[in-house]
């Protein structure tokens, strides 16, 4: 009996040692010697090389500066940063990856696959396309906004959490999920930068991992309504001197049997927030006329946007999924794109807008 007890004790002790044993790699985790990074900025340096930059330190009260390297591999950049800075830089708090549009046009799958398989990097990493020099913007703003990198992260997180439909917000997980879907046409937000401003411009369309085109202003708002969030906090239409708010949409897309035409119907519910035209919209008849003008405007804009997608040979709305049924996989991607290019498009809207009234009598 004693022998059995000793054997059981040895087994338990061995198990505890295995559970709490040493890792095969020794990591330096002394907080005084570490510096997390919030963003990496990537640009095309030509001849297959990358320019990678980041800002250090992210939060502590020291003078901030940009670290910048020309590398062949992202991991090489991480190692190189550690040789330039007295603290070891950790990617565990990496929250934003900014990709210059020229690099995105050449393809980003090898870069993103590397990040996706890195256990230290969150799949909630925000991906952003940048037009202009982000490093010049950071350098010009360092003395004006000490925690600029953190504020940029909080801005993206705010719009993702509130889901207001104002901005396209995409993280690594969402992008890769669309990239490896049957109809591989992901999207990313586009920001335009100069020395003074970091401004949201619109939505970038990809074909597989390569940037094809981007849309902005009215077209981007249509994308928010019929594609991304199907919600818009505000939809200003300057051409009609009206702004509509708190819009929710319901989209029904159908394709005929021979895939020669596509019909899209969009149901909108919202409220007229501002009107500076000549009609008296308190009168039911004139309100109906305004609604008809908005309806015609949206139908025309949406049709034009879908026709642009046909010319660019992209399907960011993944309308190809409409061809799938419970008993079939749908049309193969290349066959779908051949059909999509030639498809006749019909778009209709139904509007259910509350009139402009005093909500606090």
Report on the structure:
The protein is an alpha/beta fold. The protein has 2 domains: 186 residues, no CATH class; 145 residues, Nutrient germinant receptor protein C, domain 3 (GMP Synthetase, Chain A, domain 3), CATH 3.30.300.210. Helix content is 34%, strand content 31%. It contains 10 helices and 14 strands. The strands form 3 sheets. It has an 8-stranded mixed sheet, with helices on both faces. Strands 11-12-13-14 form a 4-stranded mixed sheet, covered by helices on one side. A two-stranded parallel ribbon has the order 1-5. The relative contact order is 0.09. About 5% of the residues have low confidence.
Gist of the model:
34% of the residues lie in helices and 31% in strands. With 361 residues, it is of the alpha/beta class.
Q: What brief labels describe this structure?
A:
361 residues, 2 domains, alpha/beta, eight-stranded mixed sheet, GMP Synthetase, Chain A, domain 3, 31% strand, four-stranded mixed sheet
Radius of gyration: 26 Å
Helical fraction: 25-40%
- Structurally, the number of domains stands at 2
Q: Return residue spans where pLDDT drops below 50 for at least 5 consecutive residues.
A: 16-26, 30-35
What is the spatial order of strands in the main beta sheet? 4-3-2-6-7-8-9-10
Question: Mind summarizing the main beta sheet?
Answer: 8 strands, mixed
Instruction: Output the structural class.
Output: alpha/beta
SSE order: HEEEEHEEHHEHHHEEEHEEEHHE
The number of distinct β-strands equals 14
First-to-last CA distance? 86 Å
Give the number of helices.
10
Q: Write down the overall mean pLDDT.
A: 85
Shape: globular
Tell me the β content: 25-35%
């Amino acid at each position: 009996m004693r022998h059995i007890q000793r054997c059981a004790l040895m087994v338990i002790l061995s198990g505890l040692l295995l559970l709490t044993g040493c890792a095969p790699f020794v990591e330096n985790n002394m907080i005084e010697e570490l510096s997390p990074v919030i963003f990496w900025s990537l640009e095309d340096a030509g001849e297959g090389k990358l320019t990678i930059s980041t800002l250090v330190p992210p939060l502590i009260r020291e003078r901030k500066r940009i670290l910048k390297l020309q590398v062949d591999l992202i991991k090489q950049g991480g190692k190189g940063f550690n040789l330039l800075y007295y603290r070891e830089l950790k990617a565990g708090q990496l929250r934003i990856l900014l990709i210059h549009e020229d690099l995105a046009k050449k393809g980003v799958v090898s870069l993103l696959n590397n990040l996706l398989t890195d256990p230290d990097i969150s799949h909630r990493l925000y991906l952003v396309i940048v037009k202009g020099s982000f490093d010049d913007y950071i350098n010009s703003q360092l003395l004006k906004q000490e925690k600029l990198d953190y504020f940029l992260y909080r801005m993206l997180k705010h719009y993702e959490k509130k889901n207001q439909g104002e901005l396209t917000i995409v993280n690594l997980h969402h992008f890769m999920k669309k990239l490896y879907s049957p109809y591989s046409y992901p999207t990313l937000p586009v920001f335009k930068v100069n020395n003074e401003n970091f401004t949201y411009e619109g939505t970038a369309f990809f074909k597989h991992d390569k940037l094809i085109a981007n849309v902005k202003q009215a077209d981007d708002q249509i994308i928010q309504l019929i594609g991304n969030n199907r919600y818009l906090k505000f939809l200003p239409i300057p051409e009609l001197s009206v702004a509509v708010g708190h819009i929710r949409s319901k989209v029904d897309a159908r394709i005929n049997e021979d895939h020669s035409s596509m019909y899209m119907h969009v149901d909108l519910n919202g409220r007229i927030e501002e009107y500076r035209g000549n009609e008296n919209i308190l009168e039911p008849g004139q309100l109906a006329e305004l609604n008809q003008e908005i309806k015609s405007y949206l139908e025309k804009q949406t049709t034009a946007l879908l026709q642009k997608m046909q010319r660019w040979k992209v399907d960011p709305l993944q309308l190809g999924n409409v061809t799938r049924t419970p008993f079939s996989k749908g049309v193969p991607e290349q066959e779908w794109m051949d059909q999509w290019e030639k498809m006749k498009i019909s778009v209709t809207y139904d509007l259910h807008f509350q009139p402009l009234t005093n909500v606090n009598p």
